[in-house]
Design goal:
Strand content: 15-25%
Order of helices and strands: HHEEEHEEEEEEEHHHHEEEE
Strand order of the largest sheet: 1-4-5-8-9
Radius of gyration: 24 Å
Helix content: 25-40%
Largest sheet: 5 strands, antiparallel
Structural class: alpha+beta
Number of strands: 14
Shape: flat
Length: 347
């Protein structure tokens, strides 16, 4: 005699599955959303830090009398698709925001620094839409004091106040979830916890063409004479030397990662304990959540490449590549400006 489930038993089982799903799925979705918001928040703030640090080192951070003037300079360092003046904030930012306790805030009422930063800096609030989908309200402090030689900047209260929404115009637009506020952007340290990557402090990540540029033979020789640590004899094979441009942007060869430091970064991003720096690591998948910061600078969506401090010849320098399924150490033409990131380190 064949055994089988009765219709009643099947229906009861389906009912139980439905109840369990109804209980667990909302919790899983909530956890996923909150983790996604947290990751997006971290990546955005790091990108904003790098862009502002670049302005600081170029001495273009201070001296603006209005937020709009500051934003027009900021968009040269970070991709901005739309800017809205203080009378049209709703075109760049959701009109209604909910506080954590359910209180409704109208963004249109945050038209001045006195409202957004809760400090009257005498400047207006500007709406900004970034290319990565983040919407923001920004107020600038004209009292900002730039310090280009130590990669820090400050002001009496703060240099900038920003309220940003990592999910754009999508709901829930709630403070503490997808909407976050930072009214005290002053100084910068390491972009990742040094303990995670062998003690290395990553101070900047610069994309080719926006964060750093190729330099000529004459500039390459000049930075060698000024003690940047590059080999003057190697200058001039290409008159558009991106590796030398990375050296200049970081402040010298000693401010770029060496081979062992890039190996430590690879261990962290691929969740592996050891590796051979001369061979591919094909069996380890890239942890894309950990790599999100680097990928946000890369011209590619699923891989990135980082210059090392090691020159190979007049026309080549070493780099480490990071792809979805393996990492590798290789030499590249120094005039290749499309792919390679300059990663600056402080130790």
């Amino acid at each position: 005699m064949k055994k089988a489930f009765t219709l009643a038993e099947v229906l009861i089982t389906l009912a139980i599955i439905g109840v369990v799903a109804a209980i667990t799925i909302p919790s899983l979705v909530k956890n996923y959303n909150e983790k996604a918001w947290a990751t997006a928040q971290d990546v955005f703030e790091k990108r904003l830090e790098v862009a502002t640090k670049q302005l600081n080192t170029e001495e273009k951070l201070a001296g603006y009398s209005s937020t709009m003037d500051f934003v027009n300079e900021l968009k040269k360092k970070i991709k901005i698709t739309n800017v809205c003046d203080s009378d049209n904030l709703g075109k760049c930012f959701e009109n209604k925001i909910l506080t954590a306790d359910g209180e409704e805030v109208d963004a249109a009422n945050l038209k001045t620094s006195a409202k957004l930063a809760k400090e009257d800096w005498g400047t207006e609030t500007v709406g900004v839409q970034f290319a990565n989908g983040v919407n923001a309200l920004i107020a600038y402090n004209p009292q900002t004091d730039q310090q280009p030689f130590n990669n820090q900047f400050s002001a009496t209260e703060a240099s900038m106040a920003i309220l940003y929404d990592v999910s754009g115009h999508k709901n829930p637009n709630t403070l503490g979830k997808d909407v976050n506020q930072n009214a005290n952007i002053k100084t910068f340290g390491c972009m990742l916890e040094p303990d995670l990557i062998g003690g290395m402090c990553i101070s900047q990540i610069l994309a080719p063409g926006t964060g750093y540029s190729a330099i000529s033979k004459a500039e390459c020789e000049q930075i060698a004479d000024e003690g940047y640590g590059n080999n003057k004899a190697y200058c001039g094979y290409y008159d558009n030397d991106y590796w030398a441009g990375a050296v200049k942007a970081c402040g010298g060869v000693s401010k770029m990662p060496n081979r062992s430091q890039l190996e430590e970064l690879a261990k962290y991003l691929y969740n592996i304990d050891s590796m051979n720096g001369t061979t591919n690591t094909t069996s380890a998948p890239l942890d894309t959540e950990k790599a999100a910061l680097f990928l946000s600078f890369s011209p590619y969506s699923s891989s990135f490449f980082v210059w090392s401090n090691h020159e190979y010849s007049q026309d080549e320098a070493y780099y480490r590549g990071f792809t979805l399924s393996y990492t590798f150490w290789l030499d590249a033409k120094r005039d290749n400006g499309i792919s390679y990131l300059a990663m600056c380190v402080d130790n």
